[in-house]
Amino acid sequence: MVRPGGRSLGFFDADVRWRGIRGLRWMQALPEVVDISRYSVSPSILVLHLGGNDLCSVRFGELVPLIQSDLERFSSFFSRFVLVWSEIIPRAIWEGARDGAGIERSRRLLNTKVSRFVRERGGVVVRHRELEGDNRGLLLPDGVHLTDIGMDIFLSGLQDGIERAMSLLVGGRRDMEVCMSSSVAVVQKGVRTYMPSNEAGISGAPLIKFLFVKS
Protein backbone atom coordinates (compact mmCIF):
# COMPACT_ATOMS: atom_id res chain seq x y z
CA MET A 1 0.00 0.00 0.00
CA VAL A 2 3.00 2.33 0.21
CA ARG A 3 2.89 4.94 -2.51
CA PRO A 4 5.77 7.20 -3.49
CA GLY A 5 5.42 10.93 -3.42
CA GLY A 6 6.08 12.07 0.13
CA ARG A 7 4.30 15.13 1.38
CA SER A 8 2.76 15.96 -2.01
CA LEU A 9 1.17 12.47 -2.36
CA GLY A 10 2.97 12.11 -5.69
CA PHE A 11 1.51 15.28 -7.21
CA PHE A 12 4.91 16.89 -7.59
CA ASP A 13 3.78 19.74 -9.83
CA ALA A 14 0.83 20.75 -7.67
CA ASP A 15 0.49 23.11 -4.73
CA VAL A 16 -0.74 20.94 -1.85
CA ARG A 17 -1.63 22.72 1.38
CA TRP A 18 -2.45 20.81 4.55
CA ARG A 19 -4.41 22.33 7.40
CA GLY A 20 -4.40 19.91 10.33
CA ILE A 21 -6.12 20.85 13.59
CA ARG A 22 -6.23 18.42 16.50
CA GLY A 23 -9.73 17.88 17.85
CA LEU A 24 -11.34 19.83 15.01
CA ARG A 25 -15.14 19.92 15.17
CA TRP A 26 -17.55 20.69 12.39
CA MET A 27 -18.58 24.06 13.84
CA GLN A 28 -14.99 25.18 13.18
CA ALA A 29 -15.01 24.11 9.54
CA LEU A 30 -16.81 27.10 8.03
CA PRO A 31 -14.68 29.70 9.87
CA GLU A 32 -11.55 27.84 8.71
CA VAL A 33 -12.73 27.86 5.10
CA VAL A 34 -13.62 31.56 5.34
CA ASP A 35 -10.16 32.29 6.76
CA ILE A 36 -8.47 30.35 3.98
CA SER A 37 -10.55 32.13 1.33
CA ARG A 38 -9.25 35.45 2.63
CA TYR A 39 -5.57 34.60 2.72
CA SER A 40 -5.07 31.85 0.12
CA VAL A 41 -5.50 31.40 -3.61
CA SER A 42 -8.73 29.55 -4.39
CA PRO A 43 -8.06 25.77 -4.52
CA SER A 44 -8.96 23.67 -7.54
CA ILE A 45 -9.61 20.72 -5.23
CA LEU A 46 -10.78 20.89 -1.62
CA VAL A 47 -10.49 17.71 0.47
CA LEU A 48 -12.30 17.52 3.80
CA HIS A 49 -11.84 14.87 6.48
CA LEU A 50 -13.69 15.73 9.68
CA GLY A 51 -16.94 15.15 11.52
CA GLY A 52 -15.95 12.15 13.62
CA ASN A 53 -15.32 14.29 16.69
CA ASP A 54 -18.93 15.54 16.56
CA LEU A 55 -20.74 12.21 16.58
CA CYS A 56 -20.72 11.94 20.38
CA SER A 57 -21.60 15.56 21.10
CA VAL A 58 -24.02 16.75 18.39
CA ARG A 59 -27.44 15.24 17.72
CA PHE A 60 -27.44 13.29 14.49
CA GLY A 61 -30.54 15.13 13.27
CA GLU A 62 -28.68 18.42 13.67
CA LEU A 63 -25.23 17.34 12.48
CA VAL A 64 -26.14 16.08 9.00
CA PRO A 65 -28.11 19.22 7.98
CA LEU A 66 -25.30 21.39 9.38
CA ILE A 67 -22.68 19.58 7.30
CA GLN A 68 -24.81 19.75 4.16
CA SER A 69 -25.58 23.44 4.67
CA ASP A 70 -21.90 24.32 5.12
CA LEU A 71 -20.83 22.28 2.10
CA GLU A 72 -23.34 24.24 0.02
CA ARG A 73 -21.84 27.50 1.25
CA PHE A 74 -18.24 26.61 0.40
CA SER A 75 -18.82 27.35 -3.29
CA SER A 76 -19.51 30.99 -2.42
CA PHE A 77 -15.96 31.39 -1.07
CA PHE A 78 -14.04 29.76 -3.92
CA SER A 79 -14.21 29.87 -7.68
CA ARG A 80 -14.57 26.64 -9.65
CA PHE A 81 -13.35 23.71 -7.54
CA VAL A 82 -14.05 20.03 -6.90
CA LEU A 83 -14.98 18.92 -3.39
CA VAL A 84 -13.54 15.62 -2.14
CA TRP A 85 -15.34 14.27 0.93
CA SER A 86 -13.27 11.79 2.94
CA GLU A 87 -15.68 9.58 4.87
CA ILE A 88 -15.42 9.22 8.66
CA ILE A 89 -13.59 6.01 9.51
CA PRO A 90 -14.49 3.60 12.36
CA ARG A 91 -12.97 3.87 15.81
CA ALA A 92 -12.52 1.19 18.44
CA ILE A 93 -13.26 3.79 21.11
CA TRP A 94 -15.73 6.66 20.76
CA GLU A 95 -14.76 8.91 23.65
CA GLY A 96 -17.77 10.20 25.56
CA ALA A 97 -20.20 7.77 23.93
CA ARG A 98 -22.76 5.97 26.09
CA ASP A 99 -23.54 3.57 23.28
CA GLY A 100 -20.56 2.84 21.04
CA ALA A 101 -22.61 0.61 18.75
CA GLY A 102 -25.15 3.40 18.32
CA ILE A 103 -22.42 5.88 17.39
CA GLU A 104 -21.08 3.40 14.85
CA ARG A 105 -24.53 3.16 13.26
CA SER A 106 -24.72 6.96 13.18
CA ARG A 107 -21.29 7.11 11.54
CA ARG A 108 -22.34 4.78 8.75
CA LEU A 109 -25.61 6.62 8.18
CA LEU A 110 -23.91 10.02 8.19
CA ASN A 111 -21.38 8.80 5.64
CA THR A 112 -24.20 7.52 3.44
CA LYS A 113 -26.19 10.76 3.57
CA VAL A 114 -23.27 13.17 3.16
CA SER A 115 -21.63 11.06 0.45
CA ARG A 116 -24.85 11.03 -1.57
CA PHE A 117 -25.15 14.80 -1.07
CA VAL A 118 -21.58 15.37 -2.32
CA ARG A 119 -21.96 13.09 -5.36
CA GLU A 120 -25.22 14.75 -6.38
CA ARG A 121 -23.33 18.05 -6.55
CA GLY A 122 -20.49 16.74 -8.67
CA GLY A 123 -18.05 16.01 -5.86
CA VAL A 124 -15.87 12.97 -5.14
CA VAL A 125 -16.22 10.60 -2.18
CA VAL A 126 -13.33 8.65 -0.61
CA ARG A 127 -14.81 5.50 0.93
CA HIS A 128 -11.78 4.05 2.85
CA ARG A 129 -13.13 0.51 2.40
CA GLU A 130 -9.94 -1.11 3.71
CA LEU A 131 -10.37 0.73 7.01
CA GLU A 132 -13.98 -0.37 7.50
CA GLY A 133 -15.08 -3.24 9.73
CA ASP A 134 -12.81 -4.45 12.52
CA ASN A 135 -9.85 -2.12 12.01
CA ARG A 136 -8.35 -2.40 15.50
CA GLY A 137 -5.12 -3.75 14.03
CA LEU A 138 -4.73 -0.47 12.15
CA LEU A 139 -5.38 1.77 15.17
CA LEU A 140 -3.06 2.99 17.90
CA PRO A 141 -3.75 1.85 21.49
CA ASP A 142 -6.01 4.89 22.00
CA GLY A 143 -8.51 3.25 19.63
CA VAL A 144 -8.88 6.47 17.63
CA HIS A 145 -5.76 7.38 15.65
CA LEU A 146 -4.27 5.27 12.87
CA THR A 147 -0.99 3.37 12.97
CA ASP A 148 1.65 4.08 10.33
CA ILE A 149 0.21 1.36 8.09
CA GLY A 150 -3.35 2.55 8.68
CA MET A 151 -2.32 6.11 7.86
CA ASP A 152 -0.67 4.97 4.65
CA ILE A 153 -3.89 3.23 3.60
CA PHE A 154 -5.83 6.38 4.49
CA LEU A 155 -3.51 8.62 2.47
CA SER A 156 -3.64 6.25 -0.49
CA GLY A 157 -7.41 6.73 -0.43
CA LEU A 158 -6.96 10.51 -0.47
CA GLN A 159 -4.58 10.19 -3.40
CA ASP A 160 -7.14 8.17 -5.34
CA GLY A 161 -9.81 10.76 -4.54
CA ILE A 162 -7.60 13.60 -5.76
CA GLU A 163 -6.87 11.72 -8.98
CA ARG A 164 -10.61 11.32 -9.59
CA ALA A 165 -11.15 15.01 -8.84
CA MET A 166 -8.40 15.92 -11.30
CA SER A 167 -10.20 13.94 -13.99
CA LEU A 168 -13.21 16.21 -13.44
CA LEU A 169 -11.08 19.29 -14.02
CA VAL A 170 -9.82 20.37 -17.43
CA GLY A 171 -8.27 17.27 -18.95
CA GLY A 172 -7.35 15.90 -15.51
CA ARG A 173 -4.31 18.18 -15.58
CA ARG A 174 -1.28 17.10 -13.59
CA ASP A 175 0.64 20.34 -14.22
CA MET A 176 -0.44 21.91 -10.93
CA GLU A 177 1.75 23.92 -8.62
CA VAL A 178 2.31 22.24 -5.11
CA CYS A 179 3.20 23.64 -1.72
CA MET A 180 2.48 22.30 1.70
CA SER A 181 2.08 23.92 5.09
CA SER A 182 0.94 22.75 8.52
CA SER A 183 2.36 19.23 8.13
CA VAL A 184 5.55 17.38 7.33
CA ALA A 185 6.20 13.94 5.89
CA VAL A 186 7.80 11.25 8.06
CA VAL A 187 9.11 8.02 6.52
CA GLN A 188 9.65 5.04 8.80
CA LYS A 189 10.40 1.49 7.71
CA GLY A 190 9.13 2.17 4.22
CA VAL A 191 5.74 3.39 5.47
CA ARG A 192 4.76 6.97 4.75
CA THR A 193 2.87 8.89 7.40
CA TYR A 194 2.17 12.54 8.13
CA MET A 195 2.58 14.45 11.36
CA PRO A 196 1.45 18.02 12.07
CA SER A 197 4.38 20.40 11.87
CA ASN A 198 5.90 22.20 14.84
CA GLU A 199 5.46 25.42 12.89
CA ALA A 200 1.72 24.99 13.15
CA GLY A 201 1.98 24.58 16.90
CA ILE A 202 0.37 21.14 16.75
CA SER A 203 1.71 17.91 18.17
CA GLY A 204 0.57 14.33 18.54
CA ALA A 205 -0.68 11.52 16.32
CA PRO A 206 -1.03 11.89 12.55
CA LEU A 207 -4.15 13.67 11.41
CA ILE A 208 -5.35 15.47 8.35
CA LYS A 209 -8.31 17.79 8.25
CA PHE A 210 -7.92 19.95 5.18
CA LEU A 211 -6.04 19.36 1.95
CA PHE A 212 -6.00 21.96 -0.82
CA VAL A 213 -4.71 21.47 -4.34
CA LYS A 214 -4.80 24.60 -6.50
CA SER A 215 -4.06 25.18 -10.16
UniProtKB/TrEMBL annotation:
InterPro entries named in the record: SGNH_hydro_sf
In terms of CDD domains, this protein maps to: SGNH_hydrolase
- What domain of life? Eukaryota
User: What name is this protein filed under?
Assistant: SGNH hydrolase-type esterase domain-containing protein
What organism is this sequence from?
Engystomops pustulosus (Tungara frog)
